[in-house]
Amino acid sequence: GGFPVWLKYVPGISFRTDNGPFKTAMQGFTQKIVQMLKSENLFASQGGPIILSQIENEYGPESKALGAAGRSYINWAAKMAVGLNTGVPWVMCKEDDAPDPVINACNGFYCDGFSPNKPYKPILWTEAWSGWFTEFGGTVHQRPVQDLAFAVARFIQKGGSYFNYYMYHGGTNFGRTAGGPFVTTSYDYDAPIDEYGLTREPKYSHLKELHKAIKLSEDALVSAGPTITSLGTYEQAYIYNSGPRKCAAFLANYNSKSAARVLFNNRHYNLPPWSISILPDCRNVAYNTALVGVQTSHVHMLPTGTSLLSWETYDEVISSLDERARMTAVGLLEQINVTRDTSDYLWYMTSVDISSSESFLRGGQKPTLNVQSAGHAVRVFINGQFSGSAFGTREHRQFTFTGPVNLRAGSNKISLLSIAVGLPNVGFHYELWETGVLGPVFLNGLDNGKRDLTWQKWSYQVGLKGEAMNLVTPEGASSADWVRGSLAARSVQPLTWYKAYFNAPNGNEPLALDLRSMGKGQVRINGQSIGRYWTAYAKGDCEACSYTGHSGRQNVNLVVASPTQRWYHVPRSWLKPKQNLLVIFEELGGDASKIALLRRSLTNVCANAFENHPSMAKYSTSSQDGSKVKEATVNLQCGPGQSISAIEFASFGTPSGTCGSFHIGTCHAPNSRSIIEKKCVGQKSCSVTISNSIFGADPCPNVLKRLTVEAVCSKAVKGTGPTILDEDPE
After folding, report:
1. Cβ distance 574 to 511 under 8 Å?
2. Where does the SUEL-type lectin domain lie (predicted)?
3. What is the pLDDT of residue 729?
């Protein structure tokens, strides 16, 4: 979420530049953190695990924009950090001018073209982007693991010393900690370990295999520089050779469309498009970035059987807002200056007198209200009645509400609920960015034309009545006059609090609330904030991902007509066995009766093994002639407490498709399925090594074959699978 909000109110401060107040705050914070780490002996110089520290973050664009002040600041920051004497190197990412001894490092989807600003500095990749964050209403991004593995292998083959994934473990922006603004509560990032703590397969294990292959090549990599040999138009070999038993090679095919067959060391090697094969002994392939032989897991959101009981509602009272107003001012005030981020919500209230002679009161066209906002959303109420709403986006925070309004003769109350969706956390001098209704605000369509309301007297109320009453806590909720009744019989209306109770479901699978039926708001369980929710529908091209080419972030909306975020993580540690309090504040209007508590469960596992393509476990125990290296194995494993209940698909031959939609090819061993069923059904895990002998006669001699299997994992009896409520985008 960026810097703490109080920092922008330090007198004379200017963020991230050669500014005394900012540098004082930054130095105090950095010293505090370093001292905390030193006191626990956590730096490598003290025998601890920390080998690198970073000061500042991706400052390059700001440095260039600020010129001399930016360079002065970055030199100060480097000197300040180094002076803390941690005993480990300091790095700056995306900062080409990082002064010695600070090492400048690369962040990005690809960093194989990066070089540090001095030849004696190591080549560091501090953020290898495994995916991308999501914004409300934005595309759900994925990065295919084949492309990520290719980027890392390419970086290492060109002399890279260190790479670090961002993110390796996705997470959740609980409470109001999401920044941006407009960043979703989920920060899953398509990471190898997902938001819920489950491994995302095949991403996790395919990268793990990559790391093993690099580790097997370590002696050669650290002992010599590479010799580069052309193997074709798009193909190259990087050979690290420093003597007997210290030779490793990377064979690369940069063609994003076509596979290649290359000759290297008097042997032929097949290279899929956009891929690198790693040969830790310069002879046998241990790994190819495009050939995914590890397990693919399908995770679904399934019913827990837990009911949300005793729904009750409480309405925000618009009519009494003026009585609760804490301050008044002539003109419109910036929102964060008023709220100091104590709430996402700020009421702007004024009144307008309408003459009884106005034409629209006698059947003419209604006047139009125009409200210009600096962000991020606004709800408009006229005389206590909802009149419409509008909102911006992360790219375009500013927006204008324009809509007809119902005015009456005499005094009319105009109430604007301005809503923030996170503090800014990146951009040039974002402490100066503004939020809220800053105008102009005016009425069009009156007999006298336009009436400007911008510089009238406005009243302000920070937060909601329900927030002031602390409805989100068990104590506060018990003191309010909730209304019990059928949600189905209730008309949908904005600014409504909902309350229900539920018991914790059995098991240990991760949990989430399905909020697809709701609009926008916030949700708490037992007083703990799950975060902001907003069922803004995702946009995207809905096309299948391709791992080839310099794509990096894949723009893929994997479920058509679906909210950007539908499921909201509920930590089990926040739950009691019985009577858990769920409180939701809904801004727009939704159907709370359709909210469900789901469990995130592994349902299907798939795996491929390619003939003559190794498994890393086999490679590490192989003999020198490489005979064992060529053995490939399909490994399947269900989740804790599960076993393989059925085999959905199995084919040794030339199958096609992806997990969940495999198809038998022109070459197929007819007994594939029965053999796999005998070996795997009823087992928690199973391994099958490819050989013609277990499938009988070779189904297609002289054709490169693979074994492809899809299995069902469940706790149910043999032969039955779980009921799927709705497919997860994965």
Report:
1. no
2. 628-714
3. 42
